[in-house]
Design brief:
- Helices cover about 40% and strands about 25% of the residues.
- By secondary structure, the protein is an alpha+beta fold.
- The chain has 3 domains: about 160 residues, PAS domain (Beta-Lactamase); about 120 residues, Beta-Lactamase (2-Layer Sandwich); about 150 residues, Histidine kinase-like ATPase, C-terminal domain (Heat Shock Protein 90, 2-Layer Sandwich), CATH 3.30.565.10.
- Strand 3 and strand 4 form a beta hairpin.
- Helix 11 runs antiparallel to helix 12 and helix 12 runs antiparallel to helix 14.
């Protein structure tokens, strides 16, 4: 005959002590239900060892109960499925044999102390997991169940595997250490601001750059510390700061600004400000990378000084050459057209040089170069609207710009003397297009006087067909159909 178990009412204290265990079990039950498993088939009292082992293996937990003295008095299906112990092996105090030898005595003592003092039990150690054939770290929690007189009638406990949690924690710590090593050793200053634009992190380079420590910048916007006024003393409002717009506009910004050092001096910086987003892609702060560009600015100033001096000397040299040529061609035996042609070519070279000077002898816009070379012919008013220049944005190196500037001058001069610009209705179309890695330039005249191919090619034609092709490492072809002169230029061009 089987005696029904005695129903022991729980005191308020007992219920409070096992509240944490109930919450843990509820959380694990939700995890289990999310998998779609039939939990009714996984009753701990079931004889289905496979089902119990399946549940324990997936949840990586085991629950257990003991008597008031802390010993198992009845089979523990979850414990047995997790550890692989039989009932005979774990009954009484045999459960301790499933604990790692290095942890066994410590956990025996802490469990005995909890039982003796009736205190909530919590401990960490390593427990044998049968299906993994090895020990796994765990955290064990247990609470005493009290009867109506306040006496312990049993203990309810749970072992939760912490292997994944510890692995994640160790990975997080390792990642933070790597990140700290990078941030502390980089020369780039890095700031991190929260959603109120207050600084919450500065690396060593940022402290060195600004002269401030992190604790000196907290409780106020970073802008108010290092970027609050212009070099002329005017206040710099936060709402005008491009760095601080990265967060409210949720967009990365970059550029150059001037910061204020702790000692009061100003210094130029280059910055990139990017929003920090949470897992829902919502902006929650800003990370700012800042680079000191004082040395670069000083180097640029020195370079400008040298370039200005060089340009001044080159212009003086061109003026001297022009003066010498004019003096040498003053004699009456020199035709005026020769003097005018040489003088015009020197002026064309000087104009191209002026354009390159404005561009600091860097890459020059082809459209500007063409407009500058044709400007003298537009200025007369006779050719207004008859010079068409079109093509995509192309930038040329200085060597190619000088060569093409001279070529455009020669073609325009010829058109003004003999071609489409020599009458009142002719037109010139200068166009270009990119074709892969090549640049194709076409000069086409139309509605001018009928063209008669020259019997001998002059200096301008030879300059274009031979000299230009060699200078551009390309090809040049001039054709003389009756409708108008056509010049085709092909040359390599950078992407």
């Amino acid at each position: 005959m089987t005696t029904a178990p005695v129903q022991r009412p729980l005191t308020d204290t007992s219920q409070a002590r096992i509240a944490e265990l109930e919450a843990e079990v509820a959380r694990l039950r939700r995890r289990l239900n999310a998998t779609g498993l039939d939990t009714r088939a996984l009753d701990p009292g079931s004889d289905s060892r496979a089902d119990v082992a399946r549940l324990v293996g997936w949840l990586a937990i085991c629950t257990w109960t003991t008597d008031a003295k802390g010993d198992f008095l009845e089979p523990q299906p979850y414990w047995q499925a997790y550890t692989g112990q039989s009932w005979d092996e774990c009954r009484g105090g045999g459960w301790a044999n499933a604990i790692h030898p290095d942890d066994r005595e410590r956990l025996r003592r802490s469990w005995a102390e909890a039982v003796a003092t009736r205190r909530h039990y919590s401990a960490e150690g390593r427990l044998w997991r049968a299906d993994a054939d090895g020990y796994r770290p765990f955290i064990s929690k247990a609470a005493p169940v009290l009867d109506e007189r306040g006496r312990v009638c049993e203990w309810v406990g749970i072992h939760t595997e912490t292997h994944d949690r510890r692995s994640l924690e160790e990975a997080r710590i390792a990642s933070e250490l790597r990140l700290s090593a990078v941030l502390d050793n980089t020369r780039m200053a890095v700031f991190m601001m929260d959603d109120r634009q207050r600084c919450v992190y500065m690396n060593a380079a940022a402290e060195q750059l600004t002269g401030y420590r992190l604790d000196e910048t907290q409780d106020r916007p970073l802008h108010d510390v290092i970027h609050h006024r212009y070099p002329d003393g005017r206040p710099f409002p936060l709402q005008d700061c491009p760095i601080d717009r990265a967060y409210p506009e949720d967009n990365q910004t970059s550029g150059e600004e001037v910061f204020v050092h702790k000692d009061g001096h100003f210094y130029p910086v280059a910055f990139t400000a990017s929003p920090i987003r949470d897992q829902a892609a919502k902006a929650v702060g800003t990370i700012v990378e800042v680079r000191d560009i004082r040395a670069e600015k000083e180097a640029q100033a020195r370079l400008r000084l040298l370039m200005n001096e060089l340009n001044h000397r080159v212009k003086n040299t061109l003026a001297t050459v022009q003066s010498i040529v004019r003096q040498g061609l003053r004699g009456s035996e020199i035709p005026s057209r020769v003097r005018e042609g040489i003088d015009a070519r020197l002026l064309a070279l000087s104009r191209s040089h002026d354009l390159l000077t404005r561009e600091a002898w860097g890459r020059t816009c082809l459209k500007e170069l063409a407009d500058l070379a044709l400007e003298p012919y537009r200025a007369t008013g006779e050719a207004a609207g008859r010079l068409i220049v079109e093509g995509p944005e192309i930038r040329l190196d200085p060597y190619a710009a000088l060569a093409l500037g001279m070529a455009f001058h020669e073609l325009a001069t010829n058109a003004a003397k003999y071609g489409a610009l020599s009458n009142d209705r002719g037109r010139v179309r200068l166009s270009w297009r990119r074709d892969g890695g090549a640049l194709r330039i076409d000069w086409k005249e139309e509605d001018g006087p009928p063209v008669i191919p020259p019997k001998e090619k002059g200096f301008g034609s030879r300059l274009i067909e031979r000299g230009l092709a060699q200078q551009l490492d390309g090809s040049v072809a001039i054709a003389y159909p009756p409708a108008g002169v056509v010049c085709s230029i092909e040359m390599p061009v950078a992407a």
